[in-house]
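Hi U.,

Before I forget, here's the chain from the pilot set. I'm dumping it here mostly so it's searchable later in email.
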Amino acid sequence: MRSTGQGAGLEIGTIPAEDIEATIERQFGIARAYAWPEVAKVLALYYAPMVLLLAVGAAWLLVDQEGLRQVLLGTADEASTAAVVASVVSLPGTLLALAYIALRNRLHGMTWASLGVRKAPLGRSLKYMFGFLALAVMAVLGLVAVMVALQVPEPEMAVRPARSASTWIWLLVGAVIIGPLGEELIHRGMIFGFLRHRHRVVIAALISSVIFALLHLSPVAFVTALPLGLYLCLMYQRLGSIVPGLVLHMSWNLLVSLAG
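Structure:
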């Protein structure tokens, strides 16, 4: 079955993802609805609570130099506390950003499908998700092998107090559900979505992923967020949907939260 140009009748599993992308985006006009001014507004709304958090905590970080170092490096209990607080304050920013996106969609006659919220082939989606996890495991094993070969001493790990149930709830809700939902819609659905109409796909993926990684505000997080962002752009481009990438993003954040 081929597309007739009507988005309502599309069957994701029966036509190439490239045809789906072209048909839906011609219909909804994402390149016209979203550009850098709109992207800046959405990012401002999404990260405004985080900026407020940084402003409030700036005095403490300047006084407590060791705490600042631990937060930046993602170590010790200070970083864990910062992650929980960031998870809590991510909710209002996400709601504000989604409300603005919904308004833009309404003004331009668009639906959430224009930002990649649509069905994707299950089999191919699972291959990409498990493929990333396999690559991540190989990367970790490779890093361990290099450290052993170079005889790098293991860093001393501080003993952390057990997290309370409420801490886990806020951390999982913010980091596993709210965070990935907002980030996929903004960084893949919106930013990568409009950039690939103006640049080559590789350039669009790189720009959106660098923005995604920089906004994690941590050198350690940047190193892991950049390849994750690039891979999620690849999934969106190949599968025609951000949903599989959203599931992968949630799964990855869950693993990181459990490991931390």
